Amino acid sequence: MAFIGKLKNLMCLKYKLRSLIFIVSVLLLNTIAFSQTSIGLNRKTPLYQNTVFDFDFPDPTVIRASDGYFYAYATQTVINGNWLNIQVARSADLENWVRLGDALPVKPAWANQTQNFWAPHVSQIDGIYFMYYSADPNSRNGLCLAVATATNPAGPFTDKGTALKCGNGFVNIDPMAYDDPATGKRLLYWGSGFEPIKVQELAENRLDFAANSQPVNLIFPINSADPNMYRDLVEGVWVTFRNGYYYMFFSGDDCCTSTHYAIMAARSRSATGPFEVMPENNGVIIKKNDKWLGPGHNSVIRDDKSRDWIVYHAYHPNDRNRGRVMIMDKLIYGADGWVRAAEGAPTKEVRVAPFINRRRQ
Questions:
Q1: What end-to-end distance do the CA atoms of the chain give, in Å?
Q2: Bond preceding residue 51 cis, omega within 30 of 0
């Protein structure tokens, strides 16, 4: 009888244990489901995690070409002992990138004895791709703005044969071309070398500046010892239009030595200014954290749900030798008319990915 009693107790304990496991499992599944729902996830929600391109890929510009693919262009780098003058990569979803090679395999004649090809920007106009970039002329008396063209987004791009604009030091770098939706004017922004960010109208051919046009200063550097100020040098401008504002993103002030570098935001009702820098945080929307160093020099790309994503470079904090890798975060446009990066940016944890229709094909 004692044996039968022990057997009954054992069976009762086993039943209670199974019940407890069932209850815990249900609670766990409900917690997961609630967590997913709270950030808009379901089984079909695509996710991503930075980096999106874990190679040296500084100053990234991302565009969507007419073939439906996204193309990213970046400053020169060395691959397997060989220089790529202008890097180019392709993606169907903004998360998974394939390197395509050198978008500018032949150096322009006026800069074929040097090796400083920086910060490209590409625009597609009527089947022609215009690439604006910076290069060190053979005279080595200061970097120049340059422009090259191609009929394929991957290149090869061919320089127009002469520099667009030259000057002392590294003032003429980081170009960004933009067609003003309000006026139809073709504009070129650029700037660094401790001078203001500038804008000037381009000619109809987009290969020269418009006759009688002059550069207009927009954002001025601020020399400050405040560690929360990043405007000793301003560069890497990007402009996008949304909700009645022209939003300007720019970076400062030391990308590659101290990595005291951040992305800031400004806005205007006009593409040619005046621009107001966001008053909070000295305009900073992305700066270093424990996950990333020196975040900056961005582009902005819109997904198929009309959400904007900021694509930029940063260093791994424990592996700077890898170079400035490409990362991406979501932008949030607030009711106050200002734009900010998603909470936690620059991020490294898993996040909801851009919505791209091509992904479902």
A1: 69
A2: yes
Give the model's confidence band at 44: pLDDT under 50 very low, under 70 low, under 90 confident, else very high.
confident
d(CA 75, CA 52): 17
Q: CA 57 to CA 87: how far, in whole Å?
A: 7
| pLDDT tens by residue, 290-303 | 999 999 999 999 99
CA distance 353 to 341: 14
- Residue in 160, 162, 141 with CA at minimum distance from that of residue 150: 160
Give, as one character, the DSSP assignment of residue 203.
Answer: P
* 352 Cβ contact list (under 8 Å, min separation 6): 39, 40, 41, 45, 46, 47, 48, 330
Tokens found for residue 145: 């703005």
Residue 53 CA to residue 322 CA, distance in Å, equals: 11
Contact between 168 and 192 (Cβ < 8 Å): no
What does each C-alpha distance from 90 to 71, 94, 95, 204, 325 come to in angstroms?
Answer: 5, 9, 10, 29, 15
Per the CB < 8 A criterion, the answer to whether 312 and 327 are in contact is yes
Inter-residue long-range contacts of 67-70, CB under 8 Å, 24+ positions, other chains counted: 67/153, 68/92, 68/358, 69/153, 69/358, 70/94, 70/301
Cis preceding linkage at 253, omega within 30 = yes
Distance CA 299, CA 249 (A): 8
For residues 287 and 295, the answer to whether their CB atoms sit within 8 Å is: yes
**Total-model pTM:** 0.88
Q: Are 63 and 89 in contact (CB under 8 A)?
A: no
pLDDT at 1 over 50: no
Contact 221, 195 (CB under 8 A): yes
